[in-house]
Amino acid sequence: MLLLGLIGGLALVLPLAQVLLYQVDALHEDRAELARLDPLAEALAVQRALFDHGSVADLVLRGRRGQEPERQLRQQVVDRHVDALRAALPPRVWPLARREADGLAADWALLARAVGEQRVGAADSGTRHRLLQEQAVQVMDLVQAHAPAPDGGAVTAGATPAALARQEAVLDARRARLQERIARQAAMRDLAALALAGALGLLAALALAATRTGRGGTPPPGDAVRRSHGRRAADRAAAPSPAERAAAELEALRRAAEDARSGS
């Protein structure tokens, strides 16, 4: 009867383990996709900030000095987004994209200084702003080439502020969907881990009961038989029985399930 219980328990544990592994893998994939959205969002923000700064810088460089305070404010916005873009690209994870972002940051610093010191013309300033925007687009391309979206969807650059705003809206919607799916998968992972841990605990108890039953039987009559029984008992004492080994393995599986539930 105990053997039937163990077999039935194993038939329940295996599907639960498969569900748990699937949920953990899916959770890791979606969290990686969510992390991939951060540099894309910052690259779009850099492009938008460059549009804004370039338009005001053009006015200043054409003689409208009263726009200089506004230009400085917009320069600070570009500074913040360029820094955020670099922070969203750890070199170990995004080596090529980070190198491109570092080049963008250096080129931006040179342009901002040249505009602030009036050492560049309006036309040249416009050209250099567009080149910086192209560098931000290159960062996006490198990010998406390194870690393509699972659904095949790519975030594209915008040629105008309105197009950039649409892409940012698409990105925000994707982020919201991922966050919702991650929350749902985390709940399913926890549920599967709890169910698996409970099933493994029950199996471990059944295995232990089977071990005790196997050792507690009535000794057969006769000296020779008793000696034979004694030898078998000594052998069992020297090495774990199959039931004991099963109990140990089930306990290890139970602990692994609990670790999976408490981990990422």
Q: Which features characterize this protein?
A:
264 residues; mainly alpha; rod-shaped
Structural class call reads: mainly alpha
Averaged pLDDT: 77
* Global outline: rod-shaped
Low-confidence stretches: 217-221
Brief rundown of the structure:
The chain is mainly alpha-helical and 264 residues long. Helix content is 83%, strand content 0%.
Characterization of this structure:
The structure is a single chain. With 264 residues, the protein is mainly α. Helix content is 83%, strand content 0%. The protein contains seven helices and no strands. It has helices spanning 2-61, 68-87, 95-116, 122-146, 161-215, 223-238, 242-262. Helix 1 runs antiparallel to helix 2 (68-87) and helix 5 packs antiparallel against helix 7. The longest helix is centred in the first third of the chain and has 60 residues, at 2-61. The chain is rod-shaped and about 95 Å long.
List strands and helices in order, with pairings:
Elements: H1 2-61, H2 68-87, H3 95-116, H4 122-146, H5 161-215, H6 223-238, H7 242-262
